[in-house]
Write a structure and sequence with these properties.
single chain; about 475 residues; alpha/beta; Spore Coat Polysaccharide Biosynthesis Protein SpsA, Chain A; 6-stranded antiparallel sheet; 5-stranded mixed barrel; globular
Length: about 475
């Protein structure tokens, strides 16, 4: 089971609510979601059950498809309620099919460098899980980190070599206490990964968080299924308390166990963490994208397209995207969330959205906006189509720059090739289709008194948005 509901705001401006960090390739050429799902290859585990919000459902499906991970299922949360309700939904769903099934729960946005070591730790955890334990993975600390919760390991668990009881969970400590934890050798970082049977999870939720289980059980009873998705009932699910699995169950249960592990784990929870896990040059710098550095050291510099040059900086983070630039000392990396909160208060769309907006059929990207007009670039994946729609306030002009398009306009079907165009007058009923085997790219010029995205009247939609 993969939890993919996070927004990843600490990696702003790359990660934003509309396209968070689990959908980005941060440490390899695969996205974090794809890497996470791929960790089960070579194990006895079934294809993943991914829990995500409705806005990301097609991103999840497409990224699993691209990674050639077949047979997975996607469970849709109508609202974010933290990890306990999400885990309860998956546990109940699987409990109905196979109560003794062992669930391996992971967040979609953590990095793990040593897969053989992970699989070895997983084998130990499965033995304890089948004996009725909820097993977490405790990472051996490499530094007195204050951004992680800690687990104090207790006595060895009988009948499960390499597994220990959890003595207690500890909240994120201050620097002095974190240093004591590392020096003492009994405390581990809490990775947020768990292994347990569906039956154990449901029983412990019933015992310690019955209100969570009650709401989620009703939401599952009211669930609908469309395409490859299981859509939880919204009315019931939103009544579930918003609480983490740690607070709801793990800090209360008498069945908590831990596998101490050294697997090269990082939650990639800040740009400082990204610097730590990335390959560095002789000056300690990490440079990704079109970046030039002069007389600089121990910096993390990433550009998503625009040439970014820095001179004479030390221990600095510089992130450049198409519509935002972030510059800060590396030791202030956790304070990005303060900036995002400030942007939200100012109602800046950059707080939550990228210039490129993803849709089930592909994406669009704003290029130019002026008085009564705007220009967008639209990309449609092979075989996909936009909704049949009309607008009350704008006309549109489409120019194909790559691929082939079929345009439906007021009952007429028009085939467009590269460098051909079509005009869509205000109020006409229209649809765009990519019938080809390669992506379709076109330039859209909108003109009218109002150009907002809510000026769309959907008449028919393949993706259930009508």
């Amino acid at each position: 089971m993969i939890l993919s509901g996070g927004t990843g705001t600490r990696l702003w401006p790359l990660s934003r609510e509309g396209y968070p960090k689990q959908f980005w390739p941060l440490v390899s050429d695969q996205t974090m979601l794809q890497e996470t799902a791929g960790r089960a290859r070579g194990t006895a585990f079934a294809p993943p059950l991914v829990v995500c919000n409705e806005a990301h459902r097609f991103l999840v499906a497409e990224q699993l498809r691209e990674a050639r991970i077949d047979g997975g299922r996607i469970l849709l949360e109508p609202a974010g309620r933290n990890s306990a309700p999400a885990i309860a939904a998956a546990a109940l769903l699987l409990h109905a099919e196979a109560p003794d099934a062992v669930l391996w729960l992971m967040a979609a946005d953590a990095a793990i460098a040593d897969l053989p070591a992970l699989h070895a730790a997983l084998d130990l955890a499965v033995v304890a899980a089948r004996a009725g334990q909820i097993v977490t993975f405790g990472m051996k600390p490499t530094a007195p980190e204050t951004g992680y919760g800690y687990i104090e390991a207790g006595a060895d668990l009988p009948g499960a070599p390499g597994v220990q009881r959890v003595a207690r969970f500890v909240e994120k400590p201050d620097a002095a206490k974190a240093a004591d934890f590392v020096a003492g050798g009994r405390h581990l970082w809490n990775s947020g990964m768990f292994v347990a049977t569906a039956a154990t999870l449901v029983a412990e939720l019933e015992r310690h968080a019955p209100e969570v289980l009650r709401s989620v059980r009703q939401a599952l009873a009211e669930a609908t299924r469309d395409l490859d998705f299981v859509r939880l009932g919204a009315a019931a699910f939103t009544t579930a308390p918003a609480i983490s699995i740690d607070y709801a169950v793990m800090e209360k249960t008498g069945h908590a166990a831990v596998v101490p592990a050294d697997i090269g784990w990082s939650d990639l929870g800040s740009w400082a963490a990204m610097w730590e896990v990335s390959a560095k040059d002789a000056g300690g710098n990490v440079a990704q994208g079109p970046v030039e550095l002069v007389d600089s050291g121990n910096c993390y510099v990433r550009s998503e397209g625009i040439l970014t040059g820095i001179v004479g900086l030390r221990d600095t983070v510089v992130i450049t995207t198409e519509d935002a630039v972030l510059v800060m000392p590396r030791d202030r990396a956790q304070d990005v969330k303060l900036l995002v909160e400030q942007l939200r208060r100012a109602s800046r769309k950059e707080a939550t959205e990228h210039r490129r907006i993803y849709r089930p059929w592909g994406h669009y990207e704003g290029l130019i906006q002026g008085d009564r007009f705007q220009v967008k670039k639209i990309g449609v994946r092979p075989g996909q189509k936009l909704s049949l729609q009309k607008h009350f306030h704008r006309a549109e002009h489409w120019v194909v720059v790559n691929g082939t398009a079929i345009v439906h306009r007021d009952g007429e079907e028009i085939l467009l090739r590269e460098n051909e165009s079509v005009y869509l007058p205000l109020g006409c009923v229209h649809r765009l289709v990519n019938p080809g085997m390669i992506p379709l790219t076109l330039i859209e010029v909108q003109s009218g008194a109002y150009l907002g995205e809510d000026d769309i009247v959907r008449i028919e939609d393949t993706y259930g948005r009508a």
